[in-house]
Design goal:
108 residues, 434 Repressor (Amino-terminal Domain)
Length: 108
């Protein structure tokens, strides 16, 4: 095995550049897979504690009734999820995510 010695500063720059390339590759892959991204305002509302299902539904311009119809749910069931009265089963949240055209992790 051959060894080389480089200054710490050069090593640190190589590591930072490697991480940047990995981030760029992940970004490019996400753009290809996901198409449209959510606006920063949507993420900020979720980070600030608003219910993700409600925030994404409003961003998509859907009423509770329309989202419930698309997800095959009763509107009251959706209302309970949005208000925190119910967490929703995995199958229910998957149906909501599909209807909102986002990943499961976005609605949980």
């Amino acid at each position: 095995m051959n060894m080389i010695t480089i200054p710490q500063e050069v090593y640190n720059r190589l590591i930072a550049d490697s991480e940047m390339l990995a981030d760029l590759a992940a970004y490019d892959a996400a753009k290809i897979e996901g198409g449209e991204g959510m606006p920063l305002e949507v993420f900020q509302r979720i980070i600030d504690g608003e219910n993700p299902v409600k925030v994404i539904r409003e961003w998509r311009g859907l009423t509770q009734a329309e989202l419930a119809r698309r997800a095959g749910l009763h509107r009251v069931q959706l209302h309970d999820i949005e208000t925190g009265k119910s967490r929703g089963s995995v199958d229910t949240l998957k149906a909501v995510a599909v209807a909102l055209e986002v990943g499961m992790d976005d609605v949980v």
